[in-house]
Amino acid sequence: MVATNVKAETMSLMDKRTALEAEMNAIISRLSQPGGPGLSGNLVDAEGFPRCDVDIPAVRAERRRLAELRNDHLVITEKINQNIQILHSARLGNRSSPLKNSDTQTSSTINTVASTPSQDVLVRHSPNSMDIDVLVSRPFAMVDEIADASPAVEDGFQLGDQILKFGNVEAGDNLLQRLSSEAQSNLGGAVPVVIMRQGTVINLTITPRTWQGRGLLGCHFRIL
């Protein structure tokens, strides 16, 4: 019963997170339009006067809303990760003891294709129920900031994308340093990236490169 309730709550949270990500990306798209102010661009001109080519109150409101959505996204993601651990523990408990007939259907809805159980993660609805499948690996980082016109944007990253694999980086210690080293060592070269976006696993290729902004990617990863 506990596992069933946790699964139902997790699916509800994932739906909420999907809605948040859609709204965040819509705001980013509007702010990043050609000639737009971007996510953090100045709202005053070179002489210090308010820009007359943008709706300053609207831009400020959208930036505030984006900050609120990012905070909500982080809270929901943390709760989802906690539920994943609960379900993972329940699945291990079921494996270590004989299954009662009443538990067989529940336990069979959690399918494992991973070689490392500690890296399992919930990814999607079962087509016929509120069941949850377990993916090959657990995301270790999330894109929580992304600059307009950056290599990350141009190569397909979106705010809220969760990183399953970045080049040779999958999990472990010193992840931020390893991600930075992976990008630097592949400057100008294609890096295969596997992400989870709104419950779907997607393969991308990103090319770290110099651009007008900071870094080689123009995005920030938050370690999960």
TrEMBL record:
SUPFAM superfamilies attached to this UniProt entry: PDZ domain-like
Keyword Chaperone: yes
Keywords assigned: Chaperone
Keyword Chaperone: yes
The Nas2 N-terminal domain, residue ranges: 12-89
Record InterPro entries: Nas2_N (IPR040815), PDZ_sf (IPR036034), PSMD9 (IPR035269)
Coiled coil residues, start to end: none
Top-level taxon of origin: Eukaryota
PANTHER family tied to this protein: 26S PROTEASOME NON-ATPASE REGULATORY SUBUNIT 9
Name under which the protein is recorded: Nas2 N-terminal domain-containing protein
Highest classification ranks of the organism: Eukaryota, Viridiplantae, Streptophyta, Embryophyta, Tracheophyta
